[in-house]
Amino acid sequence: YEQSQQMTERLSWWRAPIDATIRVWDLSIMSLQGIKLLLMGELAFEETISGPIQTAKVAGQALELGLTAFILFLIFFSANLGVMNLLPIPVLDGGHLVYHLAEWIYGKPLPDRLMAVTQRIGFVLLIMLMVLAVYYDILRL
Prior knowledge:
By secondary structure, this protein is mainly alpha-helical. It has helices spanning 15-39, 45-48, 52-65, 67-85, 93-106, 112-140. The chain has six helices and no strands. The radius of gyration is 19 Å and the shape is globular.
């Protein structure tokens, strides 16, 4: 977005944290909707996934627009990262929540072998995702 499209609104000291929380929640929901569209094939993977190169490029563009745009980028990036971290993939925090839920349901810890295998699978999937993200970053250059 262009700087001319930015709108600044002064909020009271008690209203600002509430408004910020609502906006981060909305960004998180938007991220989940994007993941859903990606999984349903309605968004192209290569156009959606960004690695460190693209992230740095967009951060630089946001910084050129000004401090407000850069802070908004950081908020968006953090919300996306938080959503991704809560996905039910072993190795990530969301995967650990699934393990804890399963332990609570079954009333006992999951077998070590199952934990080890699923952690390895999750790790490999995560590495593959990172390699693809960097690959598409390089193609964009």
